[in-house]
Design brief:
By secondary structure, this protein is mainly beta. The chain is about 5% helix and about 30% strand. The chain is built from 3 helices and 16 strands. Strands 3, 4, 5, 6, 7, 8, 9, 10, 11, 12, 13, 14, 15 and 16 form a 14-stranded mixed β-sheet that branches. The protein has a two-stranded antiparallel ribbon with strand order 1-2.
C-alpha cells in the first residue's frame, strides 16, 4: 500500500515528524474545536480482528496461479473482503486462503473483477497504480510487504522498526547494513497512521524475498473492454527459509509448529470505486484496519497453524 494521493512509492516518511504526544494506549489528533483528543490504538478493537486456521497441504502445489489443485479446492477461504477503513461490504468479491508444508507458506487470492486491467510490467514499478492484491507478513520487529498486479508484476519491501534496528541486531546484517552503498533504505512513517506508538521504520524497498514464487491466472481477457471478465487468481509460495529476518527477534519456528500464531494481512487496492452513495475507500481487506494504512501489524489477522491437512 502506498500514498495514492501523491503517487509516490514511499510516502511522507522523510517530511513528517514523529509527534511527541504519543502513548501506547492511543494517539492524539486535533478535534474540531482545535483541542487534542485521544484516538484508540489499535485503530480497531482487537476482538474484531479476523482469525483463521491454516492447514497443511494435502498434496503437491504447482505455482501457476490457477489454484486448481485438490488442496486449494478444499481449503477454507476467508470471508469476502471488506472496506479497509469502514469494514463495510464491497461491490466485488475478494477472498484469500493460506496453507503450508515443511518448505513453503502458500497464499491464494480469488479476485472478482469484470474488467481486468494492468499496465506495469517492470518489477518494483508503482503497481498500486494498477488494481493489485497485497500480502503482509509480520515478525516481532520487522514485516514484509508483497504486491502483485494482473500482469504478474511484483513489488516487495522489508520494513524494520527503528526502535529495534540496533537493539535486536538488524544493523549488523549485511543485507541491511546502512553503511553500504549498495543497500537502499529510507525512513518510513506510515501512510494514514503516522503516529504509531513504535514510531518509524527503516524501509528496504529493494529487498527481495529469497526464492519467492508467484503466478497469476486471468479468467477473461486482459485489457479488453469489449467483454466481461470473471476476474483473476493469484498464487504465492514463500519459502520458510526466507523468513529469517522476520523470525530472528522472537525465535519463532519456521516452518511453524502446531498452534503457532502469526500475523498476516491480505488486501486489495483498486483504481475504481463503487458509485455513491457507497463510501468505497478503494482499499479492501480480509479484516478492516479502521484507517487508510496497511502498515499496522496490530490489526493484521491472526493466522493459527494446524498440523492437520486440509482434507482431514
Amino acid at each position: 500500500m502506498r500514498n495514492r494521493q501523491s503517487g509516490l512509492r514511499v510516502v511522507r516518511a522523510v517530511i513528517v515528524c514523529f509527534g511527541a504526544m504519543i502513548a501506547f494506549h492511543g494517539t492524539f489528533t486535533p478535534s474540531a474545536s482545535g483541542q487534542e483528543k485521544a484516538q484508540p490504538f489499535p485503530p480497531v478493537p482487537i476482538e474484531s480482528v479476523a482469525r483463521y486456521t491454516a492447514f497443511r497441504t494435502a498434496g503437491p502445489i504447482s505455482v501457476d496461479g490457477k489454484l486448481d489443485e485438490p488442496s486449494w479446492m478444499k481449503v477454507p477461504r476467508s470471508p469476502k473482503f471488506v472496506d479497509l477503513i469502514s469494514g463495510k461490504p464491497t461491490i466485488y468479491d475478494t477472498q484469500a486462503a493460506v496453507m503450508w508444508d515443511d518448505e513453503h507458506l502458500y497464499v491464494g487470492y480469488w479476485i472478482e473483477e469484470p474488467m481486468v486491467k494492468g499496465k506495469f510490467t517492470e518489477r518494483d514499478s508503482p503497481i498500486y497504480e494498477d488494481n493489485d492484491v497485497e500480502l503482509f507478513v509480520a515478525g516481532a520487529d520487522a514485516y514484509y510487504e508483497f504486491e502483485i498486479n494482473s500482469l504478474g508484476t511484483i513489488y516487495e519491501g522489508l520494513f524494520v522498526w527503528q526502535d529495534a534496528f540496533e537493539a535486536k541486531g538488524y544493523s549488523k546484517l549485511a543485507e541491511l547494513d546502512q553503511t553500504r552503498s549498495d543497500v537502499k533504505f529510507q525512513a518510513f512513517n506510515g501512510v494514514g497512521l503516522t503516529t504509531h506508538p513504535r514510531g518509524k521504520r527503516w524501509a528496504y524497498l529493494k529487498w527481495d524475498f529469497p526464492q519467492l514464487k508467484s503466478a497469476v491466472h486471468i479468467d477473461g481477457t486482459l485489457n479488453d473492454a469489449t467483454d466481461r471478465d470473471r476476474g483473476w487468481t493469484v498464487e504465492l509460495a514463500l519459502p520458510w527459509s526466507g523468513m529469517k529476518l522476520l523470525t530472528m527477534a522472537d525465535g519463532r519456528s519456521a516452518p511453524p509448529k502446531q498452534g503457532d500464531v502469526w500475523r498476516m494481512d491480505f488486501s486489495r487496492f483498486n483504481q475504481f470505486k463503487e458509485a455513491v452513495p457507497a463510501k468505497d475507500s478503494g482499499g479492501w481487506a480480509w479484516s478492516s484496519h479502521g484507517v487508510w494504512d496497511s502498515h499496522v501489524p496490530e490489526v493484521f489477522p491472526f493466522i493459527t497453524f494446524s498440523s492437520d491437512k486440509v482434507s482431514e
